[in-house]
Amino acid sequence: xxxxxxRVADRPPHVLREYSVIADGERGxxxxxxxxxxxMCAPRWDSGAVFAGLLGGTGEYALSPATTRFTWGGYYExxxxxxxxxxxxxxxxxxxxxxxxxxxxxxxxxxxxxVRAVDADARIDIxxxxxxxxxxxxxxxxxxxxxxxxxxxxxxHVRWSGAGGAHYRDGRLRTVLALAAGQRHELVLELSDRPxxxxxxxxxxxxxxxxxxxxxxxxxxxxxxxxxxxxHAYAVLRGLTSSSGGMxxxxxxxxxxxxxxxxxxxxxYCWIRDQCYAGQAVSAAGPHPLLDDAVTFVSERLLDDGxxxxxxxxxxxxxxxxxxSLDLPGYPGxxxxxxxxxxxxxxxxxxxxxxxxxxxxxxxxxxxRDHWKAAETAAAAIATRWPEPDAxxxxxxxxxxxxxxxxxxxxxxxxxxxxxxxQSQEWNALADTLVADTATDCLHPSGRWQRAPGDQRxxxxxxxxxxxxxxxxxxxxxxxxxxxxxxxxxxxxxxYRFRHDERPLAExxxxxxxxxxxxxxxxxxxxxVTAAARRFERSRAACGSPGLFTEEFDIVxxxxxxxxxxxxxxxxxxxxxxxxxxxxxxxx
Length: 588
Description:
Blueprint: E1 20-23, E2 28-31, E3 37-41, E4 49-51, E5 60-65, E6 71-76, E7 83-88, E8 93-100, E9 108-117, E10 122-129, H1 132-135, E11 140-145, E12 148-153, E13 156-161, E14 167-169, E15 172-179, E16 184-192, H2 203-217, H3 227-239, E17 270-271, H4 272-285, H5 289-305, E18 312-313, E19 324-325, E20 337-338, H6 349-362, H7 369-385, H8 402-416, H9 421-441, H10 464-468, H11 476-489, E21 490-491, E22 494-495, H12 505-508, E23 511-512, H13 513-525, H14 529-540, E24 552-554, E25 559-561, H15 567-579
Antiparallel strand pairs: 1-2, 2-3, 3-4, 5-10, 6-7, 7-8, 8-9, 9-16, 10-15, 11-12, 12-13, 13-16, 14-15, 17-18, 19-20, 21-22, 23-24, 24-25
C-alpha cells in the first residue's frame, strides 16, 4: 500500500492547451492527450481531488493505446461536453468517447468511457486508482464479481464496471484490453458519498440519457459571428453550472497565471461577478435556462447577505474556505493551494453587475417578485456603501476604484429603465451622483478615466461601464479611454488589463482574454465594425484544440495561463459573437 506521504504522480503534466474538460454541472474532469484523467474532484466541485496528477498528486484513470508511438487528437460532439479522444497508432485508429453522466447528481459522479478499435485490432492500457482527498485516502478493493469492482476511497463508495480482467495491486487496478477491429467496450466508474444502489447501471442507458440531456440543455445558435464556438461556449457554461444555479469560475485550482510569481488560485467556486457576466451573455442569445440559473443564484445570495454580499460562494451558497497549501508538488511553476482569500473582500462592483443581470433578465420577462426584491437590496447596498474603498474587479488592495463606481451607475441606469417611475428617478439620481463623484477624482488630465484617485494608469476594465450604459457611447471620457486602452494596453491584437510597472506588458502577465472580448464590444459600440471583428477573432483563437480558454494567454510562447476552462472568457465570447453580428446602435 502506498503511504500518504508518497503522493507523486506517475505521469507528467501537459501544457494546458492539450487538456479537454468533461463536466456535468456538479464536478468536472480534465483529460490529457494520453487519455489520463489528470484532475477531478468528487463528489462536488470544491471536494478533495480523486485524480490529482495535474498538481503532482496521485489518483488517475488512464486509458490509452498500448504502445508509446501514437499521435493524439479529439473533438467535442457539437452542443455538448462529450469528448472524443482519437489516437493514430502504427496499426490503426482508436477512439474513446468520454463524458460525465449528465445532468449530474450532487452526490454521485459517473464517468463514462466508450473505447473502440476503429479500423484494426487494438490493445489498450487501462489503469485506475481513486485516491480521495488529494491522495490522503487511497482506494482499496472490497469485492470483485461479474466484471464489477466494488471499492472504497475514504468516505467515497466506488464501483467500476467493464474491467473484469483488471488486476489489483497496491491500491491500483490495471488491465490491457484487446479489441477486434470495429469492436467497442464500455467502462462505467461511479463515485458517491452515499452507498451505491445494488445493481450497476447500464452504460447504454447512461449514454442515451446524457446525449438527450445535452440536446435539451444547449440551444442551437445561428446568425452569430461564430455559431459553433458560441454554442460550445454555452455548453462549457452549462457544464460549470450546478443544479443550485451556481456556476464555478473554472474546473481547476492552483494553475499558474505566471510561473513562480505566486499568482495561482482556486477557482472552484462561484464568483458573483462571473455569474452576472454569464447571465448577461446568455441574455444576448435569448431567454435560455442559464439566464434563469444566474438570476436565481445571485438573487438568493443577495436576499441572504444583503449589503454584506461576498464576492464568491460555494455552489451550495456556503462560505469559500480560507486559502491553504497542499502537500503536493503543484503544477510546474506554482505551489498547490486550495481555498481563496477573496472570502474576506468587499467588492462594490458586484452590486452593479447584479443590477445589470436583473435588467437583462427583465428584458426577457424573467424577473419575479423575489428577484425584484433582490434587485432593490443591491441598489440599497450601493446607496449605503459606494463611498467605501473596495477591492475592485481585479481583487487587489482597497481603493476607490473608478470601475466599481461606474459599473454601479450602469446597473442603476439599466434597471431604472424598467422600474416604477419613483424608483427609476431615485436610481438614476444615484447613478448621476456616482458618475459625478468619479469625475472628481478619477479623470486623467488627458480626459480619459483613470483607475483610482492617485493611480493615473488606464485599465481595460474601464471600457465596461460605457458598454453597459453608465455614460453615453459618445461621451468624451469614454472615447478617450478607448483610445488609451487601444494604444497603451493593446499588443499584437490582444489586450492587457493594466500596466503593472515599467516592464513590457508581456513580461508582467499574459494578455487578458476577457479584456480582448470587451475591447471588441467597445469598438463595435463606437461603430468600428472591422476593428471589433479583428479583436474578436484574435481573442477567440487563443485556445487549445479543444476550444477551451484560460484567463490569460502568453503571446510570446502562445501558451494558455491560469485555470481551465475560465467561465467568464467563454461568457464574453458568447456575448460578443451575438452582439457583433448586429449593426452597431449608431448605424441602425
